[in-house]
Amino acid sequence: QVQLVESGGGLVRSGGSLRLSCAASGRTFGSYDMAWFRQAPGKEREVVAEINFNGGRIDYSHAVNGRFTISRDNAKNTVFLQMRSLTPEDTAVYYCAAGPSGSDRYDYWGQGTQVTVSS
Q1: Angle at 113 between CA 75 and CA 79, to 5 degrees
Q2: How many other CB atoms are found less than 10 A from the CB of residue 39?
Q3: Pairing relationship of beta strands 68-73 and 58-60 according to DSSP bridges
Q4: Cβ-based burial of 66 (10 A; exposed 0-12, middle 13-18, buried ≥19)
Q5: What pLDDT score was predicted for residue 53?
Q6: Containing H/E element for 51?
Q7: What CA–CA distances, in Å, run from 9 to 54, 80, 119?
Q8: Which pLDDT score is estimated for 3?
Q9: Which contacts qualify for 108-111: CB closer than 8 Å, 24 or more apart?
Q10: What is the DSSP annotation of 5-35?
């Protein structure tokens, strides 16, 4: 069982930056693949970035590639999402998710943190 708590969301102007954090409970954080998803009003939830259990494999959606950076600190049970050059299209609730390494599924979800980018 893994519990996830996101933080770092807020209101930022277009072109600005934010850093999201996701703190995980449990002693097996290092065995989970992690991801950030987002869901904008009226839209389906979409994956933003994924990182495997040891950080050796990272993937980004086309929409954020080159602007967002996912990273993790297994010693601190935390995964991060550094977001730069934000646009209003990045406005969404951002969710952290965890899944068994190599399973291609995410079983555990945080409650989400709101990111709002003003024009």
Answers
A1: 15
A2: 14
A3: unpaired
A4: exposed
A5: 96
A6: strand 46-51
A7: 25, 12, 17
A8: 95
A9: 108/1, 108/2, 108/3, 108/4, 108/32, 109/4, 110/4, 110/5, 110/6, 110/22, 111/5, 111/6
A10: EEE--EEEETT--EEEEEEE-SS-GGGEEEE
**Per-residue tokens: 23:** 């703190």
pLDDT of residue 104: 86
Quick one: which H or E segment has residue 83?
A: strand 78-83
Q: Which residue ranges of the chain lie beneath pLDDT 70? A: none
Q: Provide the pLDDT for residue 115.
A: 98
Tokens of 114: 């709101």
Q: What is the pLDDT, as a whole number, of residue 27?
A: 76
b/e sequence 44-54, b meaning 16+ C-beta within 10 Å: eeebbbbbbbe
Alpha carbon 80 to its chain's center: 7
CA 20, chain centre distance (Å): 7
From 79, 91, 90, 89, select the one nearest 29 (Cα to Cα): 79
